[in-house]
């Protein structure tokens, strides 16, 4: 295809691109915006490729974590629950923590019934270092030792213009995400170093740690801090047999996250349009990845962050990627205009 290298033609391309972006804002059928819609079903209905369908079964051998223990924050719901279920199904004794003991107890019973392995609910506000220490004491008492796996998954977030946020709102998010992760990591890490015991740490961050994101500014700042904490300790504590890695997920449907960030559901389809693989991720998929990263199969993986987003990050980073909305007829016009340029 000939190069488009005149001001006129560049302007034409920009107009086309603007039209393509506007096309994304055309309202979809109202059923898409239902708050209770299971969005992953929408994503799968649009998939034309069987190889892109989500696998929900465990990919590791069923005894991969036999004799091992795991400490998971934010384990009562969503991604934390999914990862706890996966590790328990692979043989681990799992403890799940959050502030809501009733939710933890219900989740622990559900997982244990499904997997046949014990799951321990430990109530703790990870913003409070003393509460974290008490929870770790309980973990040691119930499991007989320090954890082999630590997953920092607890998070707090909401969507709002930054200028509307109060100092308390900002502090709440940063305290849960960054301070809470540091409290858990520091408490357990010190104990492991003293005991000369190795372990695997995993942090769940987000793809916008790389470039930031408006309207979730406290979360973006705090998650970026968690990512750098992870890489810093990979360098400093790797010598003690402690591995540190992170997963930066894109849109993975959970009722909690979508309910908070998109209560009306109106942006869900627009989000999916920005994922080259055409669907949202599923909890079981990130649980499989997490299980691998904290397993002995990944024993040389340290200081890594895996972007797990269906290609959303590179798609959003390229200004002209949205031109996928340009029709073949428009491309024909662009090509014909390019051929008229002398020397093209």
From TrEMBL:
One GO molecular-function entry: 2,4-dienoyl-CoA reductase (NADPH) activity
Biological process annotations from GO: fatty acid beta-oxidation
UniProt keyword terms in alphabetical order: Oxidoreductase
Any matching Pfam family: adh_short_C2
A GO cellular component entry from the record: mitochondrion
Name the UniProt record assigns to this protein: 2,4-dienoyl-CoA reductase, mitochondrial-like
């Amino acid at each position: 295809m000939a190069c488009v290298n005149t001001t006129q033609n560049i302007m034409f391309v920009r107009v086309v691109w603007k039209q393509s972006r506007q096309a994304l804002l055309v309202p979809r059928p109202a059923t898409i915006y239902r708050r209770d819609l299971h969005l992953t079903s929408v994503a799968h209905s649009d998939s034309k490729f069987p190889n892109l369908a989500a696998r929900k079964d465990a990919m590791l051998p069923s005894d991969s974590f036999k004799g091992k223990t795991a400490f998971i924050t934010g384990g009562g719901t969503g991604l934390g629950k999914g990862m706890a279920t996966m590790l328990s199904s692979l043989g681990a004794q799992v403890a799940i923590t959050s502030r809501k003991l009733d939710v933890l107890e219900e989740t622990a019973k559900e997982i244990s019934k499904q997997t046949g392995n014990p799951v321990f609910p430990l109530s703790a506000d990870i913003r409070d270092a003393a509460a974290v220490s008490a929870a770790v004491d309980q973990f040691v008492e119930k499991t007989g030792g320090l954890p082999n796996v630590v997953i920092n998954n607890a998070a707090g977030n909401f969507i709002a213009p930054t200028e509307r946020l109060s100092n308390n709102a900002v502090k709440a998010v940063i305290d849960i995400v960054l301070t809470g992760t540091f409290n858990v990591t520091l408490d357990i890490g010190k104990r492991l170093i003293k005991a000369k015991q190795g372990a695997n740490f995993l942090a769940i961050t987000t793809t916008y740690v790389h470039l930031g994101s408006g309207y979730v500014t406290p979360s973006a700042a705090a998650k970026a801090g968690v990512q750098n904490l992870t890489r810093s300790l990979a360098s400093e504590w790797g010598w003690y047999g402690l591995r540190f890695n992170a997963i930066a997920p894109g849109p993975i449907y959970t009722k909690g996250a979508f309910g908070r960030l998109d209560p009306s559901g109106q942006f869900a389809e627009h989000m999916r349009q920005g994922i080259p693989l055409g669907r949202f991720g599923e909890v079981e998929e990130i649980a499989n990845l997490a299980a691998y990263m904290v397993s002995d199969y990944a024993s040389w993986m340290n200081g890594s962050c895996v972007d797990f987003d269906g290609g959303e990050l590179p798609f959003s980073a390229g200004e002209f990627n949205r031109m996928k909305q340009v029709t073949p007829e428009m491309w024909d016009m662009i090509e014909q205009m390019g051929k008229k340029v002398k020397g093209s």
